[in-house]
Amino acid sequence: MATRIDKEACREAYNLVRDDNTEINWAAFKYEGHMIVPAGQGTDYEEFKSQCTDDVRLFGFVRITTGDAMSKRAKFTLITWIGENQHW
């Protein structure tokens, strides 16, 4: 069976990370069977890292803010995580 995506829910989580007016700086997405769905979001990168366990495969969309007092820039990264105990 092909992988499917809950487009509406995933887009909503993605847009919260992209939104300059929210504190949300990461969103995680996981597999539920053959469906990719949001797994969480937040403001603390350590909280995101705690979801990356040996038993899961997930994707993370993370906002990184860089710059100095004069200029701030947001950069975005996609993280693919496949835990050691995951078998395809």
Protein described:
This protein has 88 residues and is α+β, with helices and mostly antiparallel strands. It has a single domain, classed as 3-Layer(aba) Sandwich (Severin), CATH 3.40.20. Helix content is 20%, strand content 44%. The protein is built from two helices and five strands; from the N terminus they run βαββαββ. Strands 1-3-2-4-5 form a five-stranded mixed beta sheet. It is globular, with a radius of gyration of 14 Å. The model has no long low-confidence stretch (mean pLDDT 95).
In short:
Helices cover 20% and strands 44% of the residues. The chain is α+β, with helices and mostly antiparallel strands.
Shape: globular
**Fourth-tier CATH superfamily name:** Severin
Radius of gyration: 14 Å
Strand content: 35-45%
Low-confidence stretches: none
Helix content: 10-25%
Secondary-structure arrangement, i.e. CATH architecture: 3-Layer(aba) Sandwich
How many structural domains does the protein architecture include? 1
Task: For the structure shown, list the relevant keywords.
Severin; 88 residues; alpha+beta
Chart the SSEs and their pairings.
Elements: E1 4-5, H1 7-18, E2 26-32, E3 35-42, H2 45-50, E4 57-67, E5 72-82
Parallel strand pairs: 1-3
Antiparallel strand pairs: 2-3, 2-4, 4-5
